[in-house]
Amino acid sequence: MENKTRVAIVGSTGYGGVELIRLLQAHPHAEVASVISSSSAGEPIAAGFPHLSGIRTELLDDVDPAAIRAKADVVFLATPAGVASKLVPRLLEQELKVIDLSGDFRLPEPAVYEQWYGKPAADPADLEQATFGLCEIYGDRVQGTSFISNPGCYPTATLLGLVPAIKAGWIDPDSIIVDAKSGVSGAGRGASLGTHYSELNENFKAYKINKHQHVPEIEMVLSDAAGRDVVTTFTTHLVPMTRGIMATMYAKLTEHRPEADFIQLYEEFYAGRPFVRIRPEGQWPATKEVAGSNYCDIGFAVDRRTGRVTIVSVIDNLVKGAAGQAIQNLNLMMGWDEDAGLRFVPMYP
Amino acid sequence: MENKTRVAIVGSTGYGGVELIRLLQAHPHAEVASVISSSSAGEPIAAGFPHLSGIRTELLDDVDPAAIRAKADVVFLATPAGVASKLVPRLLEQELKVIDLSGDFRLPEPAVYEQWYGKPAADPADLEQATFGLCEIYGDRVQGTSFISNPGCYPTATLLGLVPAIKAGWIDPDSIIVDAKSGVSGAGRGASLGTHYSELNENFKAYKINKHQHVPEIEMVLSDAAGRDVVTTFTTHLVPMTRGIMATMYAKLTEHRPEADFIQLYEEFYAGRPFVRIRPEGQWPATKEVAGSNYCDIGFAVDRRTGRVTIVSVIDNLVKGAAGQAIQNLNLMMGWDEDAGLRFVPMYP
Amino acid sequence: MENKTRVAIVGSTGYGGVELIRLLQAHPHAEVASVISSSSAGEPIAAGFPHLSGIRTELLDDVDPAAIRAKADVVFLATPAGVASKLVPRLLEQELKVIDLSGDFRLPEPAVYEQWYGKPAADPADLEQATFGLCEIYGDRVQGTSFISNPGCYPTATLLGLVPAIKAGWIDPDSIIVDAKSGVSGAGRGASLGTHYSELNENFKAYKINKHQHVPEIEMVLSDAAGRDVVTTFTTHLVPMTRGIMATMYAKLTEHRPEADFIQLYEEFYAGRPFVRIRPEGQWPATKEVAGSNYCDIGFAVDRRTGRVTIVSVIDNLVKGAAGQAIQNLNLMMGWDEDAGLRFVPMYP
Amino acid sequence: MENKTRVAIVGSTGYGGVELIRLLQAHPHAEVASVISSSSAGEPIAAGFPHLSGIRTELLDDVDPAAIRAKADVVFLATPAGVASKLVPRLLEQELKVIDLSGDFRLPEPAVYEQWYGKPAADPADLEQATFGLCEIYGDRVQGTSFISNPGCYPTATLLGLVPAIKAGWIDPDSIIVDAKSGVSGAGRGASLGTHYSELNENFKAYKINKHQHVPEIEMVLSDAAGRDVVTTFTTHLVPMTRGIMATMYAKLTEHRPEADFIQLYEEFYAGRPFVRIRPEGQWPATKEVAGSNYCDIGFAVDRRTGRVTIVSVIDNLVKGAAGQAIQNLNLMMGWDEDAGLRFVPMYP
Known about the structure:
Chains A, B, C, D: It is an enzyme of class 1 (oxidoreductase). The structure is a homotetramer. The first copy, chain A, is an alpha/beta fold.
């Protein structure tokens, strides 16, 4: 019997952390060896998450790099902004492999991080060591590395929807508008008026228009794809649902092309990648069609009257937008099948 | 004691019809004298709508213009597309005042109606008699007329958000993109997979991209405001909630102007109109903040980096987007206070 | 023109407080003269509740009995448990009329309050002055008083459903089981894991089984109706919705009686009371059928096999379960029509 | 490599059918060899269920016992009432193993079926061949059989919560009241006013009080456990959520016993069964804590004042209440591990 790779999860009492636990429970090559929470160390993980009763019976560990090293080979960080920048160097010193789900190592320029996150950035030397793990775009760089910065939820949905068209030169990079919508779990488990049931239920609201900290991450990859600086208009909305992100994206066509061309372009671009599914002409994905799974589904509408294409991309924000892609990165990093442990069928309805 | 104006409601067993009943129940100058449904004539209205128990105890009448004339002075039509085009001429013959909530008389060009609605259009002679009742834009034309075509829900939210900026020449009419989201009640009370709870709950979906029948209605008014033909990119989405529409709108600025300028422009444009509320800088309205009321709330975000403005406009689709604006049109038509019977405070939470 | 009675609302930034504002906005004999919040004094009420933009433009006042007296004749308290017990005596000294929506004055026995609420009780001398304002049962006592303790949400739904059958001797008081369900707004606006959207959405949970602080209030009135001590089994559940309470109640019949008998009994019991509606045989009310209104709707099912009756009672927890009944008490206290300002049609859908 | 057992699913376009597909996709010993739908034969299964895009690419087969035999060894029927009673005999003739998820073979008395279901019952000779597969109670009978009638959703939640206490003689069988609540997916995928989003969202309603067709199934097992005839009061409610059932159950204690005794009794009763989890004292399960999984979680509250116990039991209606338990039955029937392919962690949040 195979010895499974042992993983530790820092931030096990947040939604990203428990989703990692859910997904890894069925992983063929990895197993959770330590669940870690600085705020609840010493308590059973199932006390705060009764859905784990009888499944994970251990106590939460405290954050201690040497102790983590004794138990695990790989560490996932599912922590709020500002934690990983300080903790990762201590974990790397222990020769642990690290996959960080936070935004702390996504932006190579400290000044950009500080502008958008409003916090001190990680040390430039540490930033340099991170590989940005947007699997379908930069997956080749991930294999064999030991420190991955996992992309954000909005950037994942947005970039998988835009990069092929930009690389092909089919859309004008200066014309891109992203209208994004997210379920509430993206805001985490912290209690505030902004996550209060009665405030959000039967309500739809916009927030952080053009100010979301995912903007520079999106523009970084779009610029890389376009070969020049790209700025975008980016709006985020809260949908009265728990899981799911849709990015509805608009761009000017450089010349008219029917939807069938887009479908073919994207199917070729993502050929061999198990988690991107392209919808047939006249169909667009809905968020529930990827719920609980690692899929990103994409559909197109071309309007000859306006010369614009509308691209619809959906993911489960906690899976492909967080824990699922992190495991996908683990798989690539370790040389396992890209979809090992991730072949979940979306839960519908 | 004043004799109230007697109104009849055709289509009383749809959501638009019962919302008219709810709102008119408190109207100071009008009273519901006949509730009409071709499909359920002879049954008590409260049988299908127990929330009306003890409030409206009458039986539903059948559709009969002469009988309506005997009971009422004004008729509201809250009927599916294709009904009003045939019924309105018979009602006008009876010298009834008519307010049609359907799309049958909104588009003056029969060919355009037939292209977008996929049904035979109304007679051109009848179309000519209709006044398009977007109150805050065309309210002056409504007074004293006897046949009003009430605007659609998406057009109301969209146009109130765009017209002042277009008239002022502050945005490029060729750059307009409207990303609209609606609660499910907009789809009516008909049962289908598309209105099935388990299919829509915890789900967010796009539909009819660039094909929605409200597109030509929006472009008609935008073109009127711009003084030349305007085409737009228009996406509709279904939100897992019952009521509410948000239109998130994007346009290129003709020159940079801060949000404060937009706020001032819109406040002046809508001065004296009781139902448009402009949000202060850095705030955008959420749909629940107008639930159950006739308000349209609007907020702005200007992005200097991209040279675009984002305009957020929300309404309750069944009130300002249907029954409420219809009563506002009644008020204007009759010379009553514009907000008579419509001073409902939004129901929050 | 009538001089309206001026009312002040302490706790204007909670859901009970803003619901009072919503309902009183249309009251023919009363007007809100002061909105009060100890936590947000000095801020505009609309800052925290943008749905009130343009409707209530004043600043929140601080809690100061003499200042309240200068502005108002009647005070509503929509404050958390433990506030009214200290504040009411100071308001009564000012010869203000008081309607307290909290639980502080509902239980005449201090020891019972302290057992169930876990807080110090009000002074016995103050407790004696309070009239328990369950309008349809004790409405006669309310007229002309100056200090009313407004019933709780669960007790209102439960007691209106049980009292007639108990008084008639048709059900065994020892057999009563109440299975109650509430929307989340009943938990107030405070942010906690227990009101977090992602924890409650698509979830149904039981809480405080047999321990809810409304148990003694229910048993107090049931005992009064039965003429002897009654204890009940009482379960509360959270429903993933904002508004609405359903109490599903079970009791053993003292002898078999068909549903029609119950219907007749209740219609006679509530004859002349505008807010209780009895459903016809084979029909039971749903919470949405009273949303936004002051109605309590009741239906019955008798099972000959088991000798039990099931009684279903629904209210809007923020209206008949709080602000609406408080205004109904104001109406009775002042000798106005019982339904003045409360003739709202339920908002459906 | 093991040859997997091939299964066919009749009724693949209903919620029970697609849930079988989802769960079986990861089964170690079984594989879906034919998806069958009489209404949509010839169409790709993913056309109606885009969440299966790229996962199940085959066309739907028509219902043909011989053709099924050629493809499969075991057939699941996830069909509406009245279909299996006619189809099962033809499948058994083909020497197919059959697991029927409908109610057609749960009640051994044809007259009882006809009374509660309002349809002709199955042939008595066929009824005799069925084994009622409530796994944790009758699992021993299942092994080695070839025709299983899978229990209903409400009965599963209810019976797992009541049987141990009844068998132990701790509760009075004449005192049982079951207040059950279900998500909307239990009503199936058929479109009707009763499954319409706008009618159910933000609404809570009771239905079929004491008339639900699951009543005789519940009483059959309770009577078996009690050793004498038991009748119950049984109420069903619709919760505005998609998945999940809670049964809140009330019974008179034969003598006082603290909650700890119940916990111990149930833990012993279900020892070795992987899918029943008992909550510690003072805690009750919520439906989301079992979402997407095959667990049934149970908690207790004993009230000394009334001498009653309240038992709370939750399941996912589409998993433990349908497809999951059907696979559990397959596992038992085939002699595989009881939880093979069913070790899903609940999806939370």
